[in-house]
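[Meeting: bench + compute handoff]

Bench side (C.D.) handed over the final construct sequence. Compute side (W.E.) agreed to return the predicted structure before the next meeting so the bench team could plan truncations. Sequence as handed over:
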Amino acid sequence: MRLFDLRDPLHALSLLTRIPAPVDHARAAERAAAAAWAWPLVGALVGALTGAALWLGLALGLPPLAAAAAALAASLTLTGAFHEDGLADCADGFGGGMDPARRLEIMLDSRVGTFGASALALALLAKAAFMAETAPALTVATFAASGAVSRAVVPLIFRLGPQAKPGGMAATAGAPGWATVVAALAVGGAVGALALGWRSAGWMTAAALAAALATRAVARARIGGVTGDVLGAAQMAGELAALAALAALLSPE
């Protein structure tokens, strides 16, 4: 299999979003791990469109929180709540099971329980708060950067594993190689730097990486490793951490 493919951004788009992509979906599934270097590009696109929805809401005179709600709705529509579903499943499994086998069983249940609903509500509330406080001039760049860096760190979690169960997406797709992991981090950092500058991108990437690694550590303790849901939760945690880091940088001394 080729290390990099020019169609990988489209393969990544078909995996991570509901945006129609002109790809062979069987081929895209085969390239799921190898195309991980392009995940930050998809994150930047989703983030930019989300930021544009927020900017438009503010331009139309909506209160900041209402504009943030509209932007979140746009983001969830674009991705099909792909990462949010992983966060909710992890919260239900980690919080509700007494042993790793039972936790994995709960995570496979399509129903959302109390832990999952609470985690999802808190995550969306936090993201809406960051959106509402973002200066309109920085909106699109901010969320393009956070979308990129938060997806740039996920291939590393995928690579580090270990896989918690056979048969899931994280196991059947195969882990990305180290070259792909490094490329993803480089692409995410470059996108963040183009959007906000190297200093902001560096702090956001460091924060996202710390949050993603913490998510992996919790997953290893609770279920013995990583699943596709854990990767989704790592992205969500990384994005919130990246936004928090940027907010700290921008806050007045």
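W.E. noted at the follow-up: Residues 39-247 form one domain. C.D. will use this when planning the next construct.
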